Structures are given as C-alpha cells and as structure tokens.
Amino acid sequence: MTTSDQIYRAVESQISQRMLLPGDSIDEESLMTQFGVSRTPVREALVRLKSEGLVSSISRGGSIVSKMDVQQLVSVWELLSDLEGLCAGYACERMTRPERQALMDAHLAGEAAAEADDQVGWQQANMAFHEVLYAGSRNTFLRQEILRMRTRTVAYRSHSFGAVGDAMHAHLEHGQIAKAILERDAETAVRLMRAHLRPEGATLINLLQSLPKDMLR
Fold it and tell me: Global pTM?
C-alpha cells in the first residue's frame, strides 16, 4: 500500500466515523506531518477522494468534506436503498444455510442495543447485520458501491436517525428482512430492504427539516 493509499484510507475513515463532517476543512499540513510526507501524496489522496465525491475543492483554495443539496441527498439515498435491496435479493438467492443463520444471529445480537435505544451500540449492530448480507450477495463490486454511498451520506443519516425512526423500529424491520431471507423469498426481501432504507413522504420531510443548514449546500 502506497502512502497516498494510507492517507486516502485515513481521511475516508474519519468521514465514515463522523470525525469529519460535511463542510469541515481537510488539513493538508496536518496530514503531511502525520504521515511524514511531502504535499504530493496528500494531494494524490485528495484527488481520489474528490473523484468519489467525498471531498470538494473550495474557491479560496483547500479542500472540504463534500456537502450535498437536498436533491442530491435524496437522489443518493434513493439509489442506496435500491442497491441495498439488490444486495438483499442476491443474498437471498446465494447465501448458504450457515450464512442465513449468521444473519439471524446478527439480528438477535442487536436487540439489546435497540431496546436500550443505544445509538452507538445500534449503529455497530446495524452495520454487522448489513455486512452479513454484503458477504452473502457474493458481489464485491456491489458492496464497494454501497459502502461508498454509506460513507458519503453517513453524517446525514446519523444526524437524522430520530426523524426516520427509533432503533427498535429498525431492529424489527431487520427481523422481517431476515425472515424473508430464511424463507428464500427474494421478492419480499428486496421490497422490505428498499422500504427499510428509503424514507418517504412526511418522514422524509421531517428528516430534511432536522438537518443543520450548514451541512447542506
């Protein structure tokens, strides 16, 4: 792995973990010091991040974590829900029996966090559940695209979680998806996953209204 790759992964990780939020500046000098390198590999990493839409240039120079306007956010969220649905369909067709059991185990493991409305614990349990599906889909390119979109929208989705629904509601939806996959009902699994990820109507309006204005373009 090149130094540029290491810097790319470090910044991407900070974005995905919400250590860097939309609109935050990327400190090139700090990255140069952290990795003991010249500006060149830092710029190379930023070019890659910009090509993926995670980072944007600003008119006065420098780079920030990309912001989205409402239309962009809704469009990416819509596509993410469709890709997650596609993943659920593939997984339903391709998962082995042990993998299906692992999916149910991942669902049950999140129950305590959901009951306690433990946001940190639930986010970890939620990601563990989806990762079982990504592996079960047998499609690494699909997983990469989903994770890229999750990283790009993580700050918006996490901040707006209360507007979409509480952890227990999401946990119950996971249970319905897992049941459909255990029963090898791909059509239902796809429909449930798309609905699980795509806020619509009044829920979408509440979600957008909950976002800080400085996170939007």
Answer: 0.85
